[in-house]
Amino acid sequence: AVAIGDVCFKRDGVYAMELGGPEVGRGCGGRGIIHGFELLEKLGFHEWGFDYVLLDFLGDVVCGGFGLPIARDMCQKVIVVGSNDLQSLYVANNVCSAVEYFRKLGGNVGVGGLVINKDDGTGEAQAFADAVGIPVLASIPADDDIRRKSANYEIIGRPDGRWGSLFSDLAQNVADAKPNHPTPLSQDGLLGLFSSESTGRDVVLVPATFEDMCGVAHVTKPSLEVVYDEV
């Protein structure tokens, strides 16, 4: 039997656990998340006495397992983390679409806002947040000090440290954020946030032919099928 101490550990007042997943190439990540939540419920997840419980999911929600907390109202609000690049905001837009999909089915989860990670100041993530109708909760700069501390499992935002006020404001904004109902963008709307040079929007794609695929000229041969004239 799995006990709390087998999966949950603490450091500097923060409690954390890693659900993990199947071995590479041997299972479904979404199913792993479903199994993980079943385990958390057995460990008394709904009775924990914390002020806040943060669930960190990577990637997209096109897989039903990754959308489980939204689908089953196991969270109050979703915080989207993204950066100023198309692939990141594509995922963020899909998360907003998932929230709206489940809300139409009777769900109560909303989007609290967007955290801009590795912000380089180009502004696409801010434009995305404005377009879908969600607030920006914080902009985390692309700084090597943050990268190194994060990779070393260090707490970055200590009260008396360089990043203390940034993460203090982020925490307060997360607490105060309302579960907003976003308006997801269409594919063209999302591409419109970026310059045509960044997305190849003006590139004309030429349909491939059978000859292209085979590397040789295709010779059309007469059919050997016997066709009978209609009586």
Q: Tell me the CATH superfamily of the largest domain.
A: P-loop containing nucleotide triphosphate hydrolases
Task: Give the oligomeric state of the chains in this entry, treating copies of one chain as homo and distinct chains as hetero.
Answer: single chain
| Major sheet: arrangement of strands | 3-4-5
Mean pLDDT comes to 87
- At the first level of CATH, what is the class of the largest domain? Alpha Beta
Number of continuous helical runs? 10
Form type = extended
Q: Helicity, in percent?
A: 25-40%
Q: What amount of the residues lies in strands? A: 5-15%
Contiguous low-pLDDT stretches (5 residues minimum) are none
Based on the coordinates given, report the CATH architecture of the largest domain.
3-Layer(aba) Sandwich
Radius of gyration: 24 Å
Number of domains: 2
What would you note in describing this structure?
The protein is an alpha/beta fold and 231 residues long. The chain has two domains: 53 residues, no CATH class; 147 residues, P-loop containing nucleotide triphosphate hydrolases (Rossmann fold), CATH 3.40.50.300. It is built from ten helices and five strands. Strand 1 and strand 2 form a beta hairpin. The termini are far apart. The model has no long low-confidence stretch (mean pLDDT 87).
What is the element layout, followed by pairings?
Elements: H1 4-7, E1 8-11, E2 14-17, H2 29-42, H3 68-71, E3 77-82, H4 86-104, E4 110-119, H5 124-132, E5 136-141, H6 144-151, H7 164-176, H8 187-191, H9 196-199, H10 210-214
Parallel strand pairs: 3-4, 4-5
Antiparallel strand pairs: 1-2
